[in-house]
Amino acid sequence: MHTTLKGMGVALITPFKDDESVDYDALKRLVDYLLQNNADFLCILATSAETPTLTEDEKQKIKKLVVERVRGRIPIVMGISGNNTRAVVNAIKAEDLTGINAILSVVPYYNKPSQEGIYQHFKAIAESTDMPIVLYNVPGRTGVNMKAETTLRIARDCKNVIAIKEASGNIEQMDDIIKNKPETFNVISGDDGITFPLITLGAVGVISVIGNAFPREFSRMTRLALQGDYTNALAIHHKFAELFKLLFVDGNPAGVKSMLNAMGMIENKLRLPLVPTRITTFEAIRKVLNDLNIKC
């Protein structure tokens, strides 16, 4: 319950080999790279990890590898989500959460629940565990937006719900949450491109996709903004503006995987139904990386 998630968290991707098996060696190198370059916490087995395409055995191996590699040096947040409340509760109860500091759980997708349904879903999850819970609102993926009043109701009623990863794109909604939240509840950006402005409003950090590739630079931007050095933080934000756009033009994590591939860190492989970026996007990414003097 004392877990504090602040700064730049990384939404860890899952590297695959050419045969689409999990590349555990590349994953070890990536975790080491993030630890050495100032990642403040890791978020595993969530959207960017292509979790729906992973087997239960693969998920357990990834969790074990990351926990052993991190060795308690930074917090680890683990995604446990679904659109069947009872199944999510049972999964949390059955999971060995040794070495995990918090659970990230997304608003139920596809079912399109009402705001009351969303509230009851997260209330049931919070009551099923003593683990800190991070809500995840991403209506572009789930098909339903968790409104500010619902987020605030959950935050007030469920003491182990410690934060929300907000990716609604609605600055007014996020500002409403920040202004009216309990003191022990935090807002974390779920969108790299609006991390800087959101921190100026009172967010405490980001769960970042681009941080997989540029942890040192993006964590510096986040820390400068949190320290109130907006001039230098904004300069870094602008430096990455073109990459922010290229990151998602062909979907996530296709963009960041192409970046990591151009940097020589992983194979450019995804599992269906996801596919790599188009050649035009890949070449645009390579050009921006070259302009930034990043080896590729």
Summarize the topology.
Blueprint: E1 7-11, H1 24-36, E2 41-44, H2 56-70, E3 76-79, H3 85-94, E4 102-106, H4 115-127, E5 133-137, H5 139-142, H6 148-157, E6 161-166, H7 171-180, E7 186-189, H8 195-201, E8 205-208, H9 215-226, H10 230-239, H11 241-248, H12 254-262, H13 279-291
Parallel strand pairs: 1-2, 1-8, 2-3, 3-4, 4-5, 5-6, 6-7, 7-8
Note down, in words, how this protein is organized.
It is a single chain. By secondary structure, the chain is α/β, with parallel strands linked by helices. It is built from 13 helices and 8 strands. Helix 3 (85-94) runs parallel beside helix 4. It is globular.
Calculate the mean pLDDT score and round it. Answer: 95
- Return the domain count: 1
Q: What's the assembly state of these chains?
A: single chain
CATH superfamily annotation: Aldolase class I
- The strand line-up of the biggest sheet is 1-2-3-4-5-6-7-8
Instruction: Determine the strand fraction and express it as a percent band.
Output: 5-15%
Quick overview of this protein structure:
This protein is 45% helix and 12% strand. With 296 residues, it is of the alpha/beta class.
Task: Write a concise keyword list for the protein shown above.
296 residues, alpha/beta, TIM Barrel, 8 strands, globular
